[in-house]
Amino acid sequence: MKSYILLLPLIVLSFFMSCSKDDEQSIAYWSELSSEKTKEIENLVASVSCTNINDFEILGAGINYTYYFAVHPSIKARFETLKDELNYYDKKVTETAMRQGIVLDYMASYPPIEKACENGKVKLTYAEDLSIEEVNNALVGRYDALINFYNDIPCTDASQWSVDYVQQLCNYEGFAIHKTIRTNEATLLVGAYNSLILRKRNLESTICLFESPVIKPTVGCKDGKPVIVNQ
Fold first, then answer.
1. Of 18, 43, 175, 197, which has the maximum CB count within 10 A?
2. In terms of DSSP H, where are the helices of 47-131?
3. What is this structure's pTM?
4. Using an 8 Å Cβ cutoff, are 100 and 92 in contact?
């Protein structure tokens, strides 16, 4: 027991010395580590050949999910470890910038709208790469698929649901997402749909004036279905 008591101050001192050294590092230092970790993740996901696209899951990484990757189950555990390291470095970039009074402008990052196998590799297609004709085609049936996504999941406890937003050109509506059931899949569907709407607005030069809601919508349960409250 005595040895543990003696070691404890050394461990605490080592921890604070490490934190202090972290605080002394520059934005460039953390950004370089972030870039290196991103490249490591890219190499990892590219190491698995693509023969069946349904085997791959789209997962986000980085602050606000800056990056999206198609991850095979065989490397998911390693991916999650690298993702946590990347998120840590990105967090350090933000913290360092805040200490130095630097404002970082993070652009909204949207997930891909489609994944496919091409020459043994996963190809991800993003809304920003599409023409207006391709955007309109990609939107067909997507909204119905979204609002019917949780039809088979009963709502019995509203606390198990959260709210995301679905854009409709110049307005938006709340969308209920379950916190534990197919959460990532639902979030990706909303993000992909919103990216298509945004691309459509940009290509058609639609001007919208948005106002944030006074009261953030919440989820309630009615007749076994999730409903948006206070929208």
1. 175
2. 76-99
3. 0.80
4. no
